[in-house]
Amino acid sequence: MNIAQAGGIYDTSDRIVPRANYEDLQCAGNTLDKTLLFTSSAGAGLDLADGFGIGLALSLAENPTPANRNSIIAWMPESDAASKSETAEKLREAFTKAIELSLDELGANYVKSPGHKGEVVEIRFDSEPLGCPDYAENPELDWGELCFVQAQIIEPKTPSLTPAFVSSEATSYRFNSKDKYRYHRFKVLLPEQAQGLQEPLTRAISRNLPDWAFIYIARGQVQLDEQTVTVPYLLEQGKPNLFIHHDDA
User: Fold this and answer.
1) How many domains does the chain have?
2) Which residue has the higher pLDDT, 105 or 248?
3) Strand 147-152 relative to strand 185-189: parallel, antiparallel, unpaired?
4) Cross-strand bridge partners of residue 171
């Protein structure tokens, strides 16, 4: 919660659940990593997101509050770049590399799409086994039937003090996702048959990012036996951190 709020996601809060209900969970569709999560058991189909919005679209038409949208937050060390514009470009390069490495791990083919320009990183990928058709072989398909990863990185403000719980670096460029319109966006866009990729691909991308870059997911899916639970979490080097703590009872 401290990292999210310092990164501009001001309306997050921790849930306190009874210690007796604290149980191990793991990401639904998780095939890349067995990192355990923790939450309360409260029945099938539990939605811990409390009516959170539908997530991110790279559009000005949908602008829910920060906790209701997928976001990127980061603190790049001041020594890593000579200017604000260079800092933004380096973070875009870091996301491009992380996405490409993750798709390599999945055995998918990928290309930078027409949307990959300016502030936006957009990579289209295809893999028949993963449910992502190849546009070159199926040019009649709509864009909504293809697979994309999108990120929008905006030039940060001048360097400021780095929160001690993020890094030992004294000062850094902070990529804050507080603004209603101009925030750092992240989205994995998949057709229905490829939805199982959402969690493992996002976590793989996070794992391939620098340790000062985080992805906030407004409506992640975790699973306990046959139950699916919807819950927000912050990805740190591929590890999902839930906004849930147990009480002392």
Assistant:
1) 1
2) 105
3) antiparallel
4) 161
Share of the chain above pLDDT 70, in %: 76
Any alpha helices (H) in the chain, and if so which ranges? Answer: 2-6, 84-106, 198-207
Q: What is the C-alpha to C-alpha distance for residues 238 and 30, in angstroms, rounded to an integer?
A: 11
**Non-local CB neighbours of 245 within 8 Å, separated by 6+ positions:** 14, 15, 16, 17
The predicted pLDDT at position 238 comes to 93
Tell me if the pTM is above 0.70: yes
**Exposed (0-12), middle (13-18) or buried (19+): which is 70, by Cβ within 10 Å?**
buried
Q: Which two tokens stand for residue 7?
A: 């990164």
Predicted confidence (pLDDT) at residue 17 exceeds the cutoff of 70:
no
Radius of gyration of the chain (CA): 18
Residue 239, amino acid: K
Angle at 165 between CA 162 and CA 166, to 5 degrees: 55
Kindly provide the residue ranges of all beta strands, DSSP E only, lying in 95-145, ordered along the sequence.
109-112, 120-126
Instruction: Give the residue numbers spanning the domain of 179.
Output: 2-246
| pLDDT(6) > 50 | yes
Tokens of 142: 């709509």
Residue 106 is predicted with a pLDDT of 95
d(CA 204, CA 105): 9
Report the alpha-carbon distance of residue 157 to residue 225 in Å, rounded: 45
Number of C-beta neighbours around residue 159 at 10 A: 20
Distances (CA, A) of 218 to 3, 47, 162, 240: 15, 12, 24, 12
Whole-number Å distance between alpha carbons of 110 and 125: 4
